[in-house]
Amino acid sequence: MSEKPISPLRQRMLEDMSLRGFTPDTQRDYIRAVKKLAAFLGRSPDTATAEDLRAFQLHLTATGVQPPTINGTVTVLRFFFKVTLDRPETTRHLVFVYEPRKLPRVLSPEEVLRLLEAAPGPKHKAALSVAYGAGLRAMEVVALKVCDIDSKRMMLRVEQGKGRKSLPSRRRGIALPCCRRSYWSCYATGGASPTRRYGCSRAAIASPQ
């Protein structure tokens, strides 16, 4: 079965996003938002007027769409009309919605301990410890490599995190010792040097048991 051809409009938008280094996931989200506008209009999105976009945002609000999603959609439409269509004035009625910020629930030391003890093995315990102790996202944890561990300074180097930014994590605690123990228990039990066998490989938390 042949793939459905991409319209010139979508191709143009994909090129605009690629030029700016948007990740594939971000590109899919942007295309999805523009498709929702087209479904609302019942016609091509490039025919939308400023009043159409205002009506679309009112529709999102009336149907219970949450502020983060609405704000994301506004960002997409501003990009689509300003960059791809070169019609920035069309988005003049779009507004960002205030997002009330809620304080996160902080776990007690006992709750953190129970969470870590519930991990099925050293690899998973290390992953949870690093995520919680260093404040890393899941994608940042699984991308860690052995050479990212700086034991002397008790730091982890995060390569290409959210927004593809690299940064050092200076948060101390149980994360690094647990990560080291997991690495040696998973790789060094055979007696061979893990650095010789695997070099700067992914840490044990990201490898199969």
Describe the 3D structure.
Mean pLDDT is 79; it is low at 170-174 and 186-209. The chain has helices spanning 8-19, 24-41, 50-62, 67-84, 109-117, 122-134, 138-142, 175-187, 194-198; strands at residues 149-150, 155-158, 167-169. A hairpin with a 4-residue loop joins strand 1 (149-150) and strand 2 (155-158). The chain is mostly helical and 209 residues long. A three-stranded antiparallel sheet has the order 1-2-3, with no helix packed on it.
Task: State the gist of this model.
This protein has helices spanning 8-19, 24-41, 50-62, 67-84, 109-117, 122-134, 138-142, 175-187, 194-198, and strands spanning 149-150, 155-158, 167-169. The protein has 209 residues and is mainly alpha-helical. The protein starts with 7 loop residues before the first helix and ends in an 11-residue tail after the last helix.
